Amino acid sequence: MRFLLNTGIFFIIIICAAFLSFNSQIVEIRFFPKGLTTNDFILQIPIFILMLGFTFIGLFIGTLTEYLRSSKIRKLVQKKSNQVEDLNTQVNYLRTKSKSETDEILSLLK
User: Fold this and answer.
1) Residues 26 and 43: beta-carbon distance below 8 Å
2) Domain match, 18 and 49 both
3) In sequence order, which residues have a C-beta less than 8 Å from that of residue 20 and are 6 or more positions away?
4) Residues 33 and 61 in one domain
5) How does pLDDT run across 24-58, given as a tens digit for each residue?
6) Do 12 and 56 fall within a single domain?
7) What is d(CA 94, CA 96) in angstroms, rounded to the nearest whole number?
8) Residues 42, 43, 44, 45, Cα dihedral to 10°
9) 20/62 Cα distance (integer angstroms)
10) 89 shares a domain with 44
């Protein structure tokens, strides 16, 4: 199963690389409108780098918001997990306690 997943990811990466290589035109990015300032700061980069940059920014923002959204659920799961651990500890204690009382009664009967 892992092999199929990695193969699929590999082909997706190849398709994306081909798509990005076809989009290698240079674009000019102006940070201020043309007539607003005397010294225009113009950045000239290939469009695929611009696309990759905004894709990574979108992935980062999406991951961050999903992490923040699920923080309440993770806290609740941790709390429930701690309760389950405590209950298991109590059950084990009661089992050992009941065994020791039974052993005492049997030893008294002998």
Assistant:
1) no
2) yes
3) 48, 51, 52
4) yes
5) 788 888 877 777 766 778 888 888 888 888 889 99
6) yes
7) 5
8) -160
9) 22
10) no
Q: Which two tokens stand for residue 88?
A: 């298991």
**In which domain, by residue range, is 90 found?**
78-110
Do 3 and 57 share a domain, yes or no? yes
**For residue 17, what is the enclosing H or E element?**
helix 2-22
Helix (H, G, I), strand (E, B), or coil: what is residue 110?
coil
Rounded to the nearest 10°, the torsion over CA 83, 87, 88, 92 is: 150
Q: How many domains does the chain have?
A: 2
How far is it, in rounded angstroms, from Cα 71 to Cα 54?
26
Pick the residue with more confidence: 17 or 72? 72
Cβ–Cβ < 8 Å for 43, 29: yes
Whether residues 43 and 64 share a domain: the answer is: yes
Q: Which amino acid is at 82?
A: N
